[in-house]
Amino acid sequence: MTDSPLLPGVKKKEIFAWAMFDFANSGFTTVVITAVYSTYFVGVVAGSAAWATLLWVSSLSASYLISMLLMPVIGAWCDRHASKKRALLISTIACVIATSALGWSGPGDLMWAVFWIIIANVAFSIGESLIAAFLPELAKTDAMGKVSSWGWAWGYVGGMLTLAICLFWIISGLERGLTTTELVPPTMWITATIFLAASSYTFWQLKERAKPQPQSQSNHVLRKSIQDLASALQWAKDRPPFMQLLKCIALYQAGVSVAITVAAIYAEGEMGMGKQETMLLIFLLNIAALFGAWLLGWFQDRIGHIEALRITLIGWVLACVIAATSPNQFYFWFAATFAGLCMGASQSVGRAMVGRLTPLDRTAQVFSLWSVAIRIASIIGPMLYGLITLLSDGHQRIAIASTSLLFIISMWVLSKINWQEAERQAALDRKSL
Q1: CA-to-CA distance for 27 and 276, rounded, in angstroms?
Q2: Where is pLDDT greater, at 295 or 115?
Q3: What is the DSSP-derived secondary structure letter of residue 49?
Q4: Is 180 a member of any domain?
Q5: Number of Cα atoms under 13 Å in the Cβ half of residue 240
Q6: Long-range contacts of 172-177 (CB under 8 A, 24+ apart)
Q7: What does the DSSP assignment read for 255-286?
Q8: By three-state DSSP, how is residue 202 classified?
C-alpha cells in the first residue's frame, strides 16, 4: 500500500484496522451462512424435512427485513451523533453472542436456532453497513475501488482462516469417531471467538472522524432520526443515477445472496458432495473471491466503475449456467471457482461506487440505503430460489438457472446509469460542505 490512495491524515495502520473488520466478520458469513451451519440446520436441526431449506432462507429473509427497517434509522442517528464506531461495537458484541448461542442448538431445536440466527444476522448486517460507512472518510475519491478491494480481499482471508480452523476441527473429529451433531456446534464458538478477537484491532485503531451535528442534543432522538431518514431518501431521489445504482445493486446482490446462502446446500443436495468436500469447495470459492476483489479493485479505478461491474455481471451469468448444467462435480468445482471470482469483484465494486458518490456529512445514512438495497436483495434472491425449488419438486438446477435472470436484468439497469452525471452531482455535494 502507498499513501496516495488515502486522504490526508489517514495512516496505513488505520486502513488495516478498517480492513480488519472485514477479516473478522467474514468468518460468520463463510461458516454460519454458507458452509457449515446452513447444512447443519437443514440436515440436523430440521431433520432434512421437505420444508427445511425454505425455513432456512425464510429465517434469513426475516433477519434481512428487520435490518432493512432498522439500519436507516441507526444510520441517521450515527450521523447526527458521530457514533458509527459505538454502534459498530454494539452490533459486533450482539453478533458474537448470538453466534455462540447457535452452538447450543441440536436436533429439533428449531425455535432456538431460528431466533438466534435472526439476531446474529441482523447484528452482522448492521455492522457490515457501518464499517462500509467509514470508507469515504479514509480513501480519496479516485481510489475508492482500490481501497474497497483491500477490505474485501482481506475479508476473504479471514473467512478462509476461520473455515480452515473449523475444517480441521471437523476432519480430526470424524477421525476420532465423533458425529456431525457433536462436531458442528463448537465451530460456532470458534467463529465467534475469531470475530471478537480480530475486530478488537478495529476498535483500537479506527478513528471516528465525523463531527456531531448541532441538533443531536434534541430529546426527540427517534423522531429526528426518522426525519433524517426521510431526508436521506429524498436526497437519493433527487439523484436519479444514484437511485439507479441502488436498483442495480439490489438486483445483482439478490443473485449473489443465493450463492452465499445455498452454495453448500446445492453442493450436498444436488451434486452429492460430502461435508468435507463441501467445506473444501467453499474454501476454494473464498480463495477465488479474494483474487476477484483484489484484482478488479486495482483495475476498477482505471477502466471505470460501470465497465468493471458489467464484466462481473457477465461472469455471474456464465457461472449460473455452468452450475445448472454441470454433469458432474468437476464442472461444478469450475463453476464455483468462477462464481467466487465474480463474487469478490462485484461486492467490492458496488461498495466503491456508493462510496464515490457519498458526501462526508451523510456517510452512515447513504450507506444505510446501500444496506437496505442489499437486504432487499438478500430477501428476494434466496426466497425465489427456495420457492422455485419447492415448486419444481426439489429441482435446484432450475432454481440456480433462474438466478442468472437477476444478473441479466441488473446489467440492463446498469446500462441506464448516467455515471458522468452521478459524479458531477457528487462533486457538487462535496463542494457544498
Answers
A1: 17
A2: 115
A3: -
A4: yes
A5: 6
A6: 174/276
A7: HHHHHHHHHHHHHHHTS---HHHHHHHHHHHH
A8: helix
Locate the DSSP E strands across 91-158: none
User: What gap in Å lies between CA 35 and CA 279, rounded to an integer?
Assistant: 6
Task: Kindly tell me the burial class for residue 124, based on how many C-beta atoms sit within 10 Å of its own C-beta (0-12, 13-18, 19 or more).
Answer: buried
Q: How many CA atoms lie within 13 A of 185 on its CB side?
A: 15
CA 258/CA 114 separation, integer angstroms:
19
Question: Who contacts 130 (Cβ-Cβ below 8 Å, separation ≥6)?
Answer: 74, 75, 78, 84, 87, 88, 91, 364, 367
| Alpha carbon of residue 360 to chain centroid | 23
Contact 194, 161 (CB under 8 A): yes
Question: Is the confidence at residue 139, as pLDDT, over 90?
Answer: no
Instruction: Report pTM.
Output: 0.78
- CATH number of residue 369's parent domain: 1.20.1250.20
**Per the structure, how many domains does the chain have?**
1
Nearest to 372 by CA among 106, 164, 64: 64
CB 195 within 8 A of CB 27: yes
**Contact status, residue 59 vs residue 45, Cβ threshold 8 Å:** no
- Which three cell numbers mark 421? 452525471
Q: Say if 4 falls within a structural domain.
A: no
Domain assignment present for 7:
no
376-425 confidence digits (pLDDT tens): 888 888 888 888 887 887 778 999 999 999 999 999 999 999 999 988 88
For residue 128, give its domain range. 12-210+218-431
- With contact defined as beta carbons under 8 Å apart, do 423 and 356 qualify? yes
- 8 Å CB contact between 259 and 339: yes
In residues, how long is the chain? 433
Instruction: Please say whether the dihedral angle defined by the alpha carbons of residues 103, 104, 110 and 115, taken in this order, is positive or negative.
Output: negative
